[in-house]
Structure formats: C-alpha cells, structure tokens
Amino acid sequence: MKLLLALAALLLPTVGALLALAVEGEVAILPAAAGAALAVAGAVGVVRAHRAELARAAAYVRRLAEAEPAAPVPVPEGGSPEARSLNAALARLHRAWRRRHETLAAQLDASERMLDALHDPFVLLDARRRVVRANQAARELFGGRLAGRDLAAGLRNPDVLAAVDAVLAGKASRNLEFTLPVPVERVFQARIKRFRPEARDAEDVPETSVILTLHDITAIKRMEQTRADFVANASHELRTPLATLLGFVETLRGPARDDPEARDRFLSIMQDQASRMSRLVDDLLSLSRIEIDEHTAPTGEADLAEILDDVVAGLEMKAAKRRIRLRLDLPPGLPRVVGDEDQLAQVFQNLIENAIKYGREGTEVTIAASGGAQASGPGPAAGSALANVPTLANVAALPAGMRRAGAIVAVSVTDRGEGIARIHLPRLTERFYRADAARSRAMGGTGLGLAIVKHIVNRHRGRLAIESEVGKGSTFTVHLPAAAAADAARDVIKP
User: Which three-class secondary structure state does DSSP give residue 317?
Assistant: First the structure.
C-alpha cells in the first residue's frame, strides 16, 4: 500500500502536466492521454517487478527458516542487482547462523556428556522443584523419566525435599545425609545449592533454581560399621577356642607333661580349635569385603552352568565321604546372569557344602536350575516358610524388564536332611545364628556361611528363598537377573 501511494505521488505531477497542456491546446488530447497511460503502465510494471523480487526474497527467507540447520538452501538467481545483493546477504546471514548453531549444539552436547560422565548423581531443579536436567547417574538411581516432574516423583525422602524447599525459599545451602533403603540400602550425602544463571540483558531476570548433587558414602559407612562389627564378632567367637587352647596348653605343661597318649589327644583337639579359628577369621574377612561392596552391583556376566559344574566337581570327594550323591540338573541353554563369577561360586559352594553337612548319609543332594516363567513367577503366599525369609533385595524390587518371563534365573539346592523348624527360618541368614549350635560347631561351621550368601545375593540384586520341612529336608533357592534382562532394564533408564 505504501509503495502504491509513493508511486501515485510520483505520477500525479506528470499526468497533471499532460492534462494541463492538453486543456490549453499545447498538446493534442490523444497524445497527452497516451503519454499519461504509458507513464502509468511503466510505473505499474516497475511496481510488479519490485513486488515479485520481494516475494522471491520472502520465499527464500521462509525456506531458510524451515530448512534443517545442516541442509543447504540454494540462493535464488536472477532479479535486479539490489535483489541479488539482498539474497546474498541473507545467505551469508544463514551460514553464520548455522555455524553458530553448530557451535552451540556441540557445546551443549559436550556439556551433556560431561554431566553424564559424572559418577555422582546431579539434578537441576527450577523454582517449582521440577527437574530441569538430570545426568545418567541420577536417572539410573531415580528412574529415567525425571525431566519435567517434581523431584518427589523420584526421591521420596522428606528431609531432602524439605532442604530443597528451604534453599528455594532463600535459605543458605544445605548438606545432609540420608538413606535409600531399596533395592539395597545406600547412604548418600546430599548437597543443595542455589543457582541463578547469568542475565542476558538488564531486563532479563533469570529464574532461581537449585542444584542437587548426591555423593554415595555407603562404602565409608560400611567400613566404619564393618570395623566395629569385626571387633565385636571376632572377640565373641574367638573367646571359646582361645580359652580351650589356653586350657590345654596349661594341661600339657602340667599334669599331662609325661603322658604321651593324653598329649596326642590334646594336640589333636588344639589343632581342631586352631583350624576353627582360622576358618572363622577367613569367613569374617570375606564377609567384611562383601559388605563393603554390597551397594555396588556387578557389571560382568557369568555362566551359571560352568560355575555349578566346577563347584560340584570340587565337592564330589567331600560328598563321597558321607555317601551322598550330588545330582546336577541343568536345562540346555541356561541364560547367563549379571554377576561376579568368584562370588557366585562362593554362594553355591556354601549352599552345597551345607547340604552335604546336614543331609543324611547315603542320600542325594539335588542342584537344579531354571530360567523362565517359573523362575520369575509370583512369590509364595504370606506365612509360608519361603515368605518368611528376610532379604534386602527381592524380585519385586527389580525393574519391570527383569520380572518378565525368562528374565530371572533360579538355582535351587535341596538336601534330604532333618530339616529346619519354621521358627528358625527368619534368622538363618544372620551372622553367627545357628539352628543347632552344637551340631554346627561339631561339623566345623562358623555360623557365617548363609550370611555371606545373603550379602552376595543382595549385591547381585537377587533374592534368596528358603523352604524347609522338619524330617524331610531343606531347599535353598537363589534368584538372579539374567544378563539380557539387565541390559533391557538399562535401556529403559536411558532418556
């Protein structure tokens, strides 16, 4: 419209002059009218050409705006010098914008990779406590769908949430410790600090946000507790064999000094007590190491079939001494599991050794494995012997991907012994707990075997279940996540 008004203002004097000359007779009417018409037609042609060039430039700008950042957009050809100059300037501007976009995208990608490489969980929250950004460690800890949701959807610790609200309200930064009880108890130190991005201009007032970082101090706490437990347990359990050794030493130095028969008998007993102390110290050290690493799940894969073959082969002679037959029942194609081969071998070594010790002579110990719907099916009814077994990590705590059919591998060890009364089942995995203390000590047990089994299974995010019937025998079943299921669960966590 403005262009048309400007054109009319330019043509009006020319047309007016021609009409005036025609009225005064200086110019004939027809030539004057023809001249005016030519002037108007020329002006209209110029306007149309100019508008066409503007339309092509506008279309070029639209193509630039709609194109992908890396996609080339050809520059329109032809037109007036001014139009070509304008299009060339637009093309230079687009290339500069594209280079700037690529630089910013690379910087953002590098920042994201740096955050994801952090070992500690990192969460950025807005003023309404919604998650703006979370690194890989935070997504693995709280679940993959954090962005845009309230922090309480992933972290349900009231102390941490109250501290975040206080910092958002303007209070000073906070540091606190808290515990996450599942799937394995872990202790974290939380640091909560206000964060305000730099303002881009005087009118831009950025929204206050909060940075939440978590540092896993479980190992430190476990080491402190393990040190205290080790001293208490060692002093308690070593007192009896040490007193026995001291008593026999005094006897050998006194009344039995010149009695060869008594001396040989006492030395044999002393050797048994010393061996018991050695086994006890070894088990205590093993349990301490396992408890320190319990919160850190293994990342390798293990072949259960190979592990069970090796363990059974190593215990054949011990079983033969009690005329016990070891029967290994493995299905073809047993899935691999996520686990530490040495620790899993220790689990089944302890379970099969116990079955040999407490099974009746001349009977059979069955080691059976399965992987499928039965392995991952529903648990036992409440109140049954199986349901009473305590465990920190059970199948219900596993990701949904691991609970589907075929995702859990189960290995059971069944003996034909005297069985265990139901009253003892809830405490069987406590350290130094014995259902029959005298019989356990007589067989060389330290009271730590099942405690070691429980902590290793917890570290593997598995489940230990115990069934027993007095007079018939006991079954110890270990449920472990299959390797393929663990990979699928990790894929779900990724954003």
Answer: helix
